User: Fold these one by one.
Assistant:
Number 1:
Amino acid sequence: MSNVFDESTLASVEAQLAATDQLLENAYPGDTGARQPVHTVYVPGDKFTGELPAAWGSNALAAAGDSAGLAKLAAKLNLAEPERLGELVAAKLVSEPIEDLRLDFEDGYGNRTDAEEDAAALSAADAVSAAVAAGQAPAYIGIRFKCFEAPTRARGIRTLDLFVSRLVANGGLPDGLRLTLPKVTTVAQVESMVFLAEKLEEAHGLEAGRIRFEVQVETPQVIIAADGTHPVATLIHAGKGRVSSLHYGTYDYSASLGVAAGYQSMEHPVADFAKDVMQVAVAGTGVELSDGSTNIIPAGDPENIAAAWELHARLVNRHLTRGIYQGWDMHENQLVTRYLATFAFFREGLQAAATRLRNYVHKIESAIMDEPATARALARYIHRGVTCGAVTSQEVTDLAQISLDELEAIALNRSHAN
C-alpha cells in the first residue's frame, strides 16, 4: 500500500491550486437561475407607451388569425401539436406578448438635437416608471444608448445619465432594468461602463452592483483583437459582475466583415463563428447569450408575410438548437413565429427529456445512463419551457413525476437536488 502522498503533499497541491479554486469560484459561478427572456423587442426610444406591449400582442394575434390561425400556421410550418401550440401561443400573446423590451436611442432613434434627445430620454423614463407602476411593463425593460466611440460617446453617456437618474427620481429602478451598451470594440469601453455604473450608484445611493448592462457584439475587433486574443471573453470578467448578457448584432457585424447586404443574416458563416466564440466566452460565467435579428419582416402582402414567418420560425429554431435561447424581434408580427417556434422547441423534446429525468431522479433502469451534468441539462431545458409558458406545471408533474421545486433544484444544481 502506497504512503507517498502524505499531508504535506496534499498541502502543497492545495497551495498550488488555490488560485485556480478562486478563479473558478469568482469567474465561473455557473447559472444564476435568473429567468432569461426568449427575446428582446426593439422600439424607437421615443415611441414607448404602457399600452405598447398589449397592442403588439393583440395585433400579432389578429395577424395570425387567433388560436385557429396559429394552429394552421403551426401545421404549415410542420410543427408538432399544432392545435396545442395555437392555444398556448394565443394565451401568451394575451398574457405576456413581450418578455424583454428595449427603448432604442441608437440606430432605431438616430441623430437628433441634444434638446430633443434629452427630452426623449426623460420622457422614456417617465413612461417606463408609469408602466411598471401600472403593471403594464414587460418583465425586462430598458434602453440602448449610443456607443462609446468618440463621435457619439458624450451623447450616449448623457442619455444613460438622464434615463437612470429620472427612474430613480420617479421612485427607483425597475427590478427588470436592462441597459445595452452597443458596438463594443475594446475591453476599455466595458471598463468605462463599469466606472459610470459605479458613479450612478454612488450619486443615487444605490446598492453596489445594482446597475448591470448588456454588451452588444457588432465588431470583429471584440471577437479577435490585434494581438490575437478574444476580448469578448476578457470583457465579461473586466465587467466585475455587471455584464448580464452578450447580444450579437447581425448587420453591423456582417457589414464590418465585408459581407454583401443581400447575404447578411443570422445564419451566415461569419455570424456562426462570432456566436461560437461568444458561446464559449459565456460558458460557466452566468452571463446570458442572445442571437440577433432578421430584417425580413412579416408585413405587406400575404405571400410576403407567409415567407417571412417561415424564415423567422426557422431562424428561431436554429439558434435554439444551437443552445442560444434568446433573439431579437423588430416587428409585432414576429411575435407569432417567435412563440410558435420557441414553444414547439420546448414541447417537441418534452416527453423524452421528462422520461429521462424521471428515470434519473427515481433511479429507474433504462437504456440511457444519464450523469448528473446531463440531468441538469434535461432539467434546465424543461425549466426554460415552463418559464416561458411552453410547458405547464401539470405536464412536469405527470411526465417527470417531480415538482417544480425539484425541477428547479436539479436545473440549478442546488445542494438538496439529486
Number 2:
Amino acid sequence: MTIKVLLADDQALLRSAFRVLVDSEPDMRVVGEASDGAQAYELTKAERPDVVLMDIRMPGVDGLAATRMISRDPQLTDVRVVILTTFEVDDYVVQSLRNGASGFLGKGAEPDEMLGAIRIAAAGEALLSPAATKGLIAKFLAQGGSPADGGPGDRGTERLASLTGREREVLVLVAGGLSNDEIAEQLAVSPLTVKTHVNRAMAKLGARDRAQLVVIAYESGLVRPRVQ
C-alpha cells in the first residue's frame, strides 16, 4: 500500500528536497505541498494523506494551529502529523504533541531516519524512539509546563481513574518508551494482550496514539519527569 505524504513548510527548497526523497521510495508518494498551516489543513482535507510532515514556524497559521485543526477534525482521524523542527528542545513541539501530533523529527535527520519516521507514523505508531520525544516532554513538564486547555492532558487527569490496574501498568511502560514486544516480555504476556491494553487506554483517555499516552502519563502525574 502506498503511503500518501503531505509536505508543509514555508521553505520551497526544503519541500523540493523532501519531495525528491519521498517520491524516490516505491511505497510512498507526495500528494501535496503547503507553505502555511491554513493551506496544509485544506490540502489535508482534500487529499487525505496518511502522514503530514509539518513545520512549526510558518507565516499566518503556524504548524501548531494546523496540527490542532487536523487532529480535531473528526473526518481526519486517520491522518498522522509528524512535526519537523530545527530545535531538539522546543516548547512548541510539546504543544504539538498535546494537540494531536504523533511525534517529531529534526530537519537535520538522515534520509533513512525521515523515511522510517514516515512509515512508523503511517503504521499508527508514535515516534517515541528517538527517545527524544519522551525526554522532551519530561524536560518541559519538569520546568513547569501546564496542560493545554481542553487538551488530552486535562482529559487524562480526569479519566485516569477509569483505567484498570493493568492498563495503568502498561501506560507507565509506554511512557518509558517500551515497544509492545518489550512490554509483553516484561509483563510475561503476549504482544497482542499488550496491544489490547494500549488500545483500551487510548480509548478511555481520548488519545489518538502512543505519543499522546506519554503526554497524559506525565501530565496526570502517573509518571514523574526525571531531571538530569
Number 3:
Amino acid sequence: MRPDTPAETVDHTAEAARLERTAGLYPEDSEALLLRAAAHLELAGDRPTATALYDRLLSSTDGLENPHLVRALKASNLWEYGHEAEARAIIEGVRVASPRDPAPWVIVAEALESHDELEAAHDTFTEAVRLLLTDVPQPPQPTHPLLFGRHRVRRMLGKSHDEWDALADTVHSLPITLDELHDPKRVWSLGSGNPVELAAEITRLRAELGAYREALSRPFPVAILHWPATELSELLEAYPTLAAEYPSHETHLATIESALRELSSSGTPNLGIVTGTVPSYEAFAASELSSPGDATLLPQYATTLAARGRAVAWPPQQGAACWCGSGRAYGECHGSDA
C-alpha cells in the first residue's frame, strides 16, 4: 500500500496477503511485515486470522525483536472477539515482564481502557511511566503516548494533576490543552443545539484527530544507505566495481552525515538511515534481475529497505547512540560538530 493511499479505499484482506507474501521473500523482515499484515486483518474484521499470525510469530524458532509487542497486540485482538480471560492473562504477563519498549505498555493499557478497566489502565500507564521515565531528563518521543494515555485516564477517573501530568503538558504540542482534549464532559457538548458549542467541539476533535494521526503515522523517510565496516569490506571484496562509490569506510560515514545535513538544511523532512547487509543486497539485486556490482541499484536498495520499515530516524534523539554503530553518543561522535 502506498503511503498516500486513502484508508477507505484499502482492501485490507488483499493487503494482508501481499504483506505475507513479501515476508516470505524477506525473512529477515518477517516480524515487521507480519505485524502489519495482522493489523490489516484486524481492520478487515478477521480477528481469528490475525491471532493466527500473532501465534505464528510467537512460535517462530527465530528470535523476535520485540516479543512483548507481539503478545500485547495478540491480547488486545483476543479481547475484541470474546477471549477476555486469555487476553487478561497475556496482559498480566506483559506487565510482569516489564519491557523497556513503551509500545507494549501503551497497547495493553489502552486495551484495558477501551474495556472500561480504568483503574487497571491507570495502574499500567503509571507502572510504565515510572519504569521508563524516572530520572530521564527529556521523555523520548515513543514514550509520549504513555504520558498522554495516563493523563487521559486520570481525567476520566477525576484524579488531580501530579508531576507526571505536568510532564505530559510540557511535551504536548497542540494548541488545545490536554485537559480540554481529555475532558470527560466533552461528549455532552456533541448533543448540544448551540452552534458555538458544536463549532468549538469540532475544533477540539480535529486537534485530537491530528494527535492520533501523528502518533499512528509511519512517515516514509528519505533514507541514506549505511554499510557497517565488515559488510562494506565483504561488499567491495565481492564487487570491486563499487569501490568508486566507497573509497573507504571513514569516507562513507562522513558522506552519510554530510548528505543528511545538507538535506535537512534544504528543508527535506523525515530523514533516515538504513543499514545494508551483503546477503540482503544480493537478494535484492536478484529480484531486480541485475548484478550487485551495478551502482545504480544502491539507492533503489535503500528505498526498498525504508519501505520495509528498516529506516532509523536521523538525527538521533539527544543522548542516543550514534547511527554509525560506534557505541558512542551521537553528540560525541558524528554529531559532535552539529
